[in-house]
Design a protein that fits this description.
Layout (H helix, E strand, L loop, with lengths): L11 H16 L1 E10 L3 E6 L3 E5 L11 H10 L3 E6 L14 E7 L7 E8 L8 H65 L5 H15 L4 E7 L5 E4 L1 E3 L5 E3 L4 E3 L4 H8 L4 E11 L2 E15 L2 E9 L9 H37 L7 H25 L11 H18 L3 E8 L2 H8 L1 H18 L6 E6 L2 E7 L5 H16 L14 E8 L8 H16 L5 E3 L7 H4 L3
Parallel strand pairs: 18-19
Antiparallel strand pairs: 1-2, 1-6, 2-3, 4-5, 5-6, 7-8, 7-14, 8-11, 9-10, 12-13, 13-14, 15-17, 15-18, 16-17
């Protein structure tokens, strides 16, 4: 055994070659093979003149290997020896050749390893001494150990590579999410700043300026459309050097290009052309991506915003399209409001000029003015109703919550997924308001809303203000225990925030009670029932002393409903 030293093997193939050569020498084998079935099929043969040769394991039967005999040895897990050729059929005048035996030495099965050494020989292996058999079995043991070591090493390497890949993907995903959240925050800042503009020209100028500085667009331009939908007119744009320019002198027919026409016919449609020619003053100044989204007054297009990457050449991300679309919707509303306001101001000026000459029509004029004011108030009320954002906290409001939950409920029903709803109530909030005043109460609600958003940031889920001091969170396709973990995180983060609440009967710091429920939607069941379950669980949390979480317990429900929880 001195020539068989595992510490001096240079590779796995070297190990197999020495092992098969040693076994061949000890058994005087005519043919010898190493056959591995798991973890992946492999087949090796040893020839004295060629050494170790790798063969196609799927050609084993074509090479003459008796697969049923090998499978029998593997199933029993022990050495099998049988007669391959019987010399008794030879006539007495001719000397019979020695009997040929075949043997299969199974490798020890462990950790998914399965294989054997198969050989054919004229030596009577069934007459080997115990010492000779022990020597061969020891070789089998060493070979199995080395094979298992290689398998485990490959498994560890593969798991390490998968972990590194997963970690890299997670880091990239978190970076993209953070970038999107940063842009959403920037979009909110853009809206705040644009709301202070007094004229349409200032509004469009600042829209171009803020889109470049806060929304990461290289060049931005806003074009307006005449009421006949035939002429486009420039407003403010960006030249090839990145400077904001007054383009109100630019007037041209609307391009007949089918892609442009499609963008002007569809609401909420962002047109992106990759590797497109980029222009300034109708002259090509480079190539890159070019994006376009239209501005709308109801169902009437009033213009569009164009953006490209001429300056920094950065590729467009998927979330840029959503930011671009939201920016266009916001600018459309502000432009309409600005025009309505300007029209109203002009109307008032004209009215003052005509007052002296139209004294007899003063009553009718005042009535018309009141009618316009009522229409404007109704329009503002409709805009407020269409708003999806809670004005106090900046998160989703009740309307967005109802629409989102109804949509996700139907999608979950079709895809056989679960939903979870958390209903969160600020404990003793009335006492907090009475003690500190409504100003502090509003600040408290904003802090709680921000904390809930930080605890649940995923785009697939939704945090909303349900009403008063109640908040709700929707989890789409939650994992088992995900809602419980989120409840625990909310309590922990609120404890770290440590909002002083001396008027509370629960604790000296602000606390919340949480009720939550899981449900896989079924045909005929309405999404409001999931809200009711979470509300019942919230009632249990309050009954338990507040500052805690409770899951809905469906003991009182019919069996067919309990099965869907």
């Amino acid at each position: 055994m001195l020539e068989w030293d595992p510490e001096h093997f240079t590779s796995f193939e070297h190990l197999c070659e020495v092992t098969l050569a040693t076994i061949r020498e000890k058994t005087e084998a005519d043919q010898i093979y190493l056959w591995l079935n798991r973890p992946q099929p492999e087949l090796f043969a040893f020839y004295p003149e060629r050494g170790l040769v790798s063969l196609d394991p799927h050609q084993a039967s074509m090479l003459g290997l008796p697969l049923p005999f090998i499978e029998q040895a593997l199933a029993k897990g022990q050495l099998l020896i049988e007669l391959k050729s019987d010399p008794t059929g030879w006539c007495e005048a001719v000397e019979a050749p020695p009997a040929q035996l075949r043997a299969c030495f199974p490798l020890k099965r462990q950790q998914g390893l399965e294989g054997c050494v198969y050989l054919e020989t004229h030596r009577r292996l069934d007459r080997l001494t115990p010492r000779q058999k022990q020597s061969i079995q020891l070789l089998m043991h060493y070979l199995a150990a080395e094979l298992e070591s290689r398998m485990l090493s490959n498994l560890v390497s593969r798991e390490r590579d998968e972990r590194l890949t997963t970690e890299a993907s997670l880091v990239q995903s978190e970076a993209l999410q953070q970038s999107f959240l940063d842009l959403l925050q920037s979009l909110h800042q853009v809206g705040v700043q644009l709301s202070s503009c007094r004229t349409e020209s200032n509004l469009l100028h600042d829209a171009v300026l803020l889109a470049r500085s806060l929304l990461q667009f290289d060049r931005v331009a806003v074009f307006l459309i005449d009421p006949d939908f035939t002429i486009m007119q420039g407003s403010w744009g960006t030249n090839e050097a990145g400077e904001i320019t007054d383009e109100r002198h630019f007037v041209s027919p609307i391009p007949e290009h089918p892609v442009v026409q499609e963008a002007l016919r569809r609401k909420d449609y962002v047109l992106v052309l990759e590797d497109a020619p980029l222009y300034y003053e109708q002259q090509e100044v480079g190539r890159g991506w070019n994006a376009m989204v239209s501005l709308w007054d109801g169902d009437t297009p009033i213009g569009w915003i164009a953006a490209d990457n001429l300056l920094q050449r950065k590729p467009i991300k998927t979330y840029h399209g959503e930011i671009f679309k939201q920016f266009a919707a916001m600018l459309s509303q502000m432009l309409i409001r600005q025009r309505n306001h300007a029209a109203l101001e002009q109307f008032n000026r004209d009215l003052e000029v005509r007052v002296a000459a139209r004294t007899r029509q003063l009553a009718e004029t005042n009535e018309a003015l009141e009618s316009v004011n009522r229409a404007l108030a109704q329009a503002n009320e409709q805009l407020a109703l269409l708003s999806m954002e809670d004005p106090l906290t900046g998160i989703a409001n009740r309307r967005q919550w109802d629409l989102t939950l109804a949509r996700e409920w139907e999608m979950a029903r079709r895809q056989h997924r679960r939903l979870a709803v958390l209903m969160i109530d600020v404990d003793e909030f009335k006492a907090y308001n009475d003690h500190f005043g409504h100003g502090k109460g509003d600040l408290c609600l904003r802090q709680v809303a921000q904390l809930l958003q930080e605890c649940e940031r995923r785009r697939t889920n939704l945090v909303a203000r349900y009403g008063g001091e109640e908040f709700v969170i929707l989890l789409c396709n939650p994992q088992p225990g995900e809602a419980e973990f989120l409840c625990q995180r909310i309590h922990q983060q609120l404890a770290k925030l440590a909002i002083h609440h001396p008027a509370s009967r629960v604790k000296s710091q602000l606390t919340v009670s949480i009720g939550f429920s899981y449900w896989a939607p079924d045909q005929g069941v309405q999404w409001e029932q999931l809200i009711e379950r979470a509300d019942q669980a919230l009632y249990r949390a309050k009954s338990a002393g507040r500052a805690c979480s409770r899951i809905f317990e469906p003991q009182s429900l019919p069996t067919e409903q309990i099965s869907t929880v």
